[in-house]
Amino acid sequence: MTDLESFLAQAIRQRKLEQKLTKYALTRLREALGWVRGQIEFHGLTQIGPNRTERLKVLRMEVETYMKEQYATPLMQTMQVSEVMNDFIDQQLSLARQVVVATGGSASGALTASAVLPQAMGQVMVNGVPWGELLVDRLPASVADKVSRMLGLFPDDVGKVFADAIVRPTERHVEAIITSGVQDTGSIAQQLLWQIETSDAWKTDNQQVWSAMLDSRVCATCMGRDGKRYPMDYVKVSPHPNCRCVLLPESFFTQDRPVEGDGGKVVDIDTTQRATEKWLRDNPQTARKVLGVKVGNQFVEGKISLDVAVKKAGGS
Q1: Using the 8-state DSSP alphabet, how is residue 264 labeled?
Q2: How far, in Å, CA of 187 to CA of 108, rounded?
Q3: How far apart are the C-alpha atoms of 258 and 264, rounded to whole Å?
Q4: Are 11 and 58 in contact, with CB atoms under 8 Å apart?
Q5: 3-class SS at 259?
Q6: 172 CB contacts (<8 Å, ≥6 apart)?
Q7: What is residue 129's predicted lDDT score, i.e. its pLDDT?
Q8: Measured between alpha carbons, how far is 210 from 231 in angstroms, rounded to an integer?
Q9: pLDDT tens-digit series, residues 156-194
Q10: How far is the C-alpha of 191 from the C-alpha of 96, rounded, in Å?
Q11: pLDDT at res. 46
Q12: How far, in Å, are 53, 120, 255 from residue 197 at the CA level?
């Protein structure tokens, strides 16, 4: 296996740590939503009656306060001191040091997980919003809003629709936030090592490269950024939840990497945008999945470039 294949294989194994945190978050979430369900009955909102609108407003505020204070804020605090999260960051730092040494640099070994974790978590941005804010501020308000809307639409049938209207969408939302946040926390921890711990000579010789997972699941935005160079102090902003992209030092990125095309066939390509464009043209089924049928056909037939195709497909 190449260094990059080994790096990605270890990253997949580390995903198990991320899944543990997701499971923990969803367990706590179900407890919180159980409280919400109880409050609906306590406030007598399963039936239309006097002052129902006012009581609904009171419930919405109570739900938002409870979700924030009893679920979202404690969850973020727990993650900052979690042994699982610290183990994850330790492994990310270890991987980053291996990369530095493999590319001719030196790493001091000074950074520790406990020192890096709070700083890294604080820098994670998902679609332009700090992921802590998504959990601590936006998620509680989102749950409260869904409760209000559901009660307005289904005043006599709350029990049957609560799971579909509140529980399942919220669980998917939390899972996406945790997945994005944990992965990007690890990436940012590595970036802090590139920036702080390594030798000046190694840092000045490198840029970071955006590396997308090239398969039928890649989005147009991430594919359009694949191979683009960024300064070493650039902090990744995931363009959407569940982004699988990583930032790698340029010197580590100058080799072939495995990508997946039509029918799951895996091949190696180099790291230039020209190679990405050729890979996509050579895999028309994948191109249509990523870009949509109309734009994908135009691209495969050579009528438009990759940059134009990405923009037409809604990439940014």
Answers
A1: G
A2: 19
A3: 12
A4: no
A5: strand
A6: none
A7: 92
A8: 11
A9: 566 667 888 888 999 999 999 998 898 889 889 988 898
A10: 8
A11: 67
A12: 57, 15, 24
What 8-state DSSP symbol labels residue 7? Answer: H
Predicted confidence (pLDDT) per residue in 253-277, tens digit? 666 778 898 988 888 887 777 888 8
Q: Taking each helix axis from N to C terminus, what angle separates 293-300 and 273-281, rounded to the nearest 10 degrees? A: 110
110-126 burial string, b = 16+ CB within 10 Å, else e? Answer: ebebeebbeebbebbbb
pLDDT in tens, 96-122: 888 788 777 888 888 999 999 999 999
pLDDT cut 70: percent of the chain above it: 90
Please state, as a whole number, how many other Cβ atoms lie within 10 Å of the Cβ of residue 230: 16
List of residues 6+ apart from 137 with CB closer than 8 A: 68, 72
Contacts of 27 (CB under 8 A, 6+ apart): none
For residues 43 and 93, what is the distance between their CA atoms, to the nearest angstrom? 50
Sheet with 246-249: list strands edge to edge: 229-230, 208-211, 246-249
Question: Position of tokens 């991430």?
Answer: 222
Mean pLDDT, range 226-238, rounded to an integer: 86
**Both structure tokens of 221:** 């935005």
Q: Which residue has the tokens 């040091």?
A: 97
